[in-house]
Amino acid sequence: MTLLKIAAPALAALILLSPAPARAMSREDEAVVQRGLDALYMSDYDGAEKIFSESMRARPGDPMLSLGLATVAWWRMENDFARPGSPEEGAFVSALKQAVADGKRAAGGDDKAEAYLCLGAAYGLRGRWEAAQRRWLSAYLDGRRAYRDAQRAVKLNPELYDAYLGIGAFDYYVDTLSGFVRAFAFTSGGGRAKGLSELQLATRGRFSGVAAKLLLVGIDWTFEKNPQEAWKILEELHQRYPGSPMIDSMRLIGLFHLRDAAGLKRDARTFLDKIERGAAFYRPADRPAGRYFLGLGEQLSGEYDQAIAEYEAALKEVPEAHRWRSMLHLFIGECQDLLGRREDALASYRQALKDPPLWGVPRYARYLLKRPFLPGDNPLPSRNDDLP
Hints:
Layout lengths: L2 H4 L20 H15 L3 H14 L4 H17 L7 H21 L4 H21 L3 H21 L7 H11 L4 H6 L7 H11 L6 H14 L4 H14 L4 H13 L3 H17 L9 H15 L2 H14 L6 H15 L3 H13 L6 H10 L18
Helix pairs in contact: 2-3, 2-4, 3-4, 4-5, 4-6, 5-6, 6-7, 7-8, 8-10, 10-11, 11-12, 12-13, 13-14, 13-15, 14-15, 15-16, 16-17, 17-18, 17-19, 18-19
């Protein structure tokens, strides 16, 4: 369970699997999609892949099913720390091409609202992958296609609430951009209140409710600065998906935002224990996340040597040249600063800058090269937060 996937920026992937078709679905069709989604939220990637693959054989060319399979492939790729050129990435690219082709073909048929929703979601997923590869222009162009196709879907069927997921995300996040960036991207729309209203509509979608709530959790953490509201949503989802590594991981992030060091350490140890016991859907690949969160709890508690030990244990299990390593090196440097080991901290920050970049790590590492990390500082401020 990589932090890239479960943190707020990675939650963009969640918005890509929520198509509610314009045509009347049979109960059997609805059950297939819901089973696939439930398996995905439980981190049962084999189960979700089987559900969508078998359904595609029965209904080839259905863009909703091919989109589902592509999304499962994306999550599996992230979970496995897959690197560019890996078999996991190859499977994702193949599934994504099929999803785009099926969406385009369906857009020429009768169920245009569903087709545009699925096609837009496929473009959004492709844009998310391109952004991870730092192909910014391609990511922007696909993101724009995704937004426009979702708007087409809503125009054809205003009650297609699932389409408001991508629209609401765009309208909210574009309001967080500077005027210069919006002008550069030829974007003048959006709006915080508008986006939040649209995301609330998405919670009423046939299949988009969970994804919309997860997106709202990320917004509450990063922009609204309301971790208590995010925690309420997470507890609701925890009741719906008990034993889900993905939901459990997000609860660990929630405890960090609540600054509950004791709770974070307790639940991180429980998370690691589930991995060691072989609990359903918990895998050895989840261990670095557990170690990271335990280290973060130790850091918040002032146990800096123990925090470094946990971060270093996580590093041993993260593949070389993986972007998650930059964050671990950053946090090691913070603890070294707090221990008064400034030269060691500087070396850790420089290493973080050498690693493939993750989120706002390079920005903060450069900042900490100029001044030591101090007690009470935020371990990783949001990219939209001003640094003093």
